[in-house]
Amino acid sequence: MSTKENFEREAQSASDKLHEASDTIKSSAHEYADEAKRTANAYAEQGMATAAGRLNDFASAVRRASDELNQRDQDFAARLVSHAASSLEDIASSVSHTSMDEVVTSVKGFARRNPAVFVGGAVLAGLAAGRFLRASGERPHYPPTGQAAPHTGYTPPASYTPQAARPPVAPANSTPK
User: Fold this and answer.
1) Same structural domain for residues 90 and 114?
2) Fewer Cβ within 10 Å of end Cβ, the chain: N or C?
3) Domain check: are 61 and 86 in the same one?
């Protein structure tokens, strides 16, 4: 067997192994993607069930408010609030009886029919989520006097007294009581 034939055989073997490895990687990637999709769907379904339960709880509270308005002879307001409670119950029922795939399909269809409204809603949802995350974030912890702040290394002077520990100061033009 010549060197050229040996080289061609080795090149073909390497090419076959490369294709085999490529197929294995593609197959594994598809399996991992499918598993991630199933996990995400399970979390989404659980979130939808939780949301439906909370909507039902809220609808019940609104329904009780409607009943109380009825007892106080506030018929018009009672009808409006009762209608709102019915709408909330319908939404909760719809959420609890809809799969995540149906929701995604519905959202895609809405986005295609109303792209400007969809983008505007996405921006508003992003802003609301950002405000929520910022508001629920951890508050900074200020160290006691004489200790360095961990994130800046700043050490307040010994004469510094935190605002909460300072005695109240009366305005200059007030008289003591």
Assistant:
1) no
2) C
3) yes
Verify that 5 and 92 share a domain, yes or no.
yes
Into how many domains does the chain fold? 2
pLDDT at residue number 25: 92
Q: What is the token pair recorded at 112?
A: 């295609």
For 25-36, write each residue's pLDDT tens digit.
Answer: 999 999 999 999
In a domain, 75, yes or no: yes
Which domain does 22 fall in, by range? 1-98
CA-based radius of gyration for the chain:
32
Q: Are 98 and 58 in contact (CB under 8 A)?
A: no
Tell me the per-residue pLDDT of 1-20, one tens digit each, with 9 for 90 and over. Answer: 688 888 888 888 889 999 99
What is the H or E stretch that residue 99 is in?
none
What does the buried/exposed string (b/e) look like for 3-21 if buried means 16 or more CB atoms within 10 Å of the residue's CB? eeeeeeeeeeeeeeeeeee
Whether pLDDT at 145 is above 60 = no
pLDDT tens per residue across span 88-123: 888 888 888 888 888 888 889 988 998 898 888 889
- Three-class DSSP category at 27: helix
- In angstroms, what CA-CA distances link 71 with 66, 77, 80? 9, 11, 15
Q: Please provide the average confidence, as pLDDT, over all residues in the chain.
A: 81
For 143, other C-beta atoms within 10 Å of its C-beta total: 13
Residues 66 and 26 in one domain: yes
